[in-house]
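Below is a filled-in request sheet from our internal design queue. Each sheet records the structural input a requester submitted and the sequence that came back. We keep these sheets so that new team members can see what a complete request looks like end to end.

REQUESTER: design group, bay 2
PRIORITY: normal
MODE: inverse folding
CHAIN LENGTH: 346
BACKBONE (tokenized):
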């Protein structure tokens, strides 16, 4: 779908602002402020879930702003509807080219990580839809298996709570067709992805048990934290080495401890973090750059981990702030200081 021209959008119509309501300030600075305040967050959340890329989502929201800046705002009845339709179409266009890139992708594809910021990528703090706050890697991988139109219909209905008449206008399809797309997508999501909430205390216990086993090189202790059918997925993107997909608690435990024992891992520094809302950590190298993120998916049974997602593709880690370079060599992994404000941390 490529029809993103403002003058063909169904939300463009004579302004129906009630008499006496204050007119919107048309100055560019005022419009930019309204865009950031009223629309950017939900548009960014939609684009990330559509594309699985933080950087591409930011690009889409910026592109939408540039197009919106050329529109006479007084002719648009529902600016939010207009903009979400625009972003949806931009994402669908991007997915068409992304499909070719994904076919050529080397190894396992994982989404670009959101580190300690998953809440900032939700549609809004008030949204209560079932999947609204979920940006976990497992959920994003499930979305990745849907067709672009299924993904759009599912997200607009299940996350952004639009009715099917509204979705039909977004996707230039009939309401019945959109209902079918969303229903088919939901069946896939329910079949592939079991969602369950984990309390902060449980997240902390999982992280401490996992890291304690790693730092003591205790394969048996690590295996006890993992389910028997745990899966390890790693994304190197063909840019750096990444282990192939592994399954099984004993094998994953031996592999992980083996990596930690390698001479190249001696200067690793670890910072606990929430990675896409999951307990995990960022691994930093000796020069202070982030070299991988690790997200731990809790199992339904308390105290166990059912999946480990390792993001090593440097193209997907460039947005993470650096930390201070290591002054002296280390003999084992150790905690990392928080990124400094000079490095871009809050």
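RETURNED SEQUENCE:
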């Amino acid at each position: 779908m490529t029809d993103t021209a403002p003058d063909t959008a169904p939300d463009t119509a004579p302004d129906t602002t009630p008499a006496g309501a204050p007119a919107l300030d048309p100055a560019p600075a005022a419009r930019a402020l309204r865009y950031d305040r009223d629309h950017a967050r939900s548009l960014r959340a939609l684009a990330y879930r559509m594309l699985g890329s933080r950087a591409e989502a930011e690009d889409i929201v910026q592109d939408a702003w540039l197009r919106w800046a050329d529109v006479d705002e007084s002719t648009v009845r529902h600016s939010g509807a207009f903009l979400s339709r625009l972003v949806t179409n931009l994402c669908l266009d991007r997915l068409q080219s992304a499909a070719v890139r994904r076919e050529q992708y080397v190894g396992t594809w994982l989404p670009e990580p959101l580190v300690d910021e998953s809440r900032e990528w939700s549609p809004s703090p008030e949204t209560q839809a079932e999947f609204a706050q979920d940006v976990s890697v497992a959920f994003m991988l499930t979305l990745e298996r849907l067709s672009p139109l299924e993904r759009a219909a599912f997200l607009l209905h299940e996350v952004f709570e639009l009715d099917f008449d509204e979705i039909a206008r977004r996707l230039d399809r009939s309401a019945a067709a959109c209902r079918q797309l969303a229903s088919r997508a939901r069946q896939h999501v329910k079949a592939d992805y079991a969602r369950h909430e984990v309390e902060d205390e449980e997240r902390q216990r999982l992280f401490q048990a996992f890291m304690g086993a790693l730092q003591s090189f205790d394969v048996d202790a690590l295996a006890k934290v993992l389910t028997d059918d745990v899966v390890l997925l790693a994304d190197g993107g063909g840019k750096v080495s990444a282990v192939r997909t592994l399954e099984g608690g004993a094998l994953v435990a031996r592999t992980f401890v083996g990596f930690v024992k390698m001479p190249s891992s001696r200067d690793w520094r670890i910072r606990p973090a929430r990675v896409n809302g999951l307990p995990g950590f960022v691994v930093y190298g000796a020069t202070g750059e982030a070299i991988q993120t690790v997200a731990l998916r809790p199992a339904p049974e308390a105290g166990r981990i059912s999946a480990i997602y390792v993001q090593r593709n440097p193209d997907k880690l460039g947005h993470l702030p650096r930390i201070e370079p290591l002054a002296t060599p280390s003999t084992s992994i150790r905690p990392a200081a928080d990124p400094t404000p000079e490095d871009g941390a809050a």
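SHEET NOTES:
- DSSP finds eleven helices and seven strands in the chain.
- Confidence is low (pLDDT under 50) at residues 1-10, 13-21, 340-346.
FILED BY: M.R.
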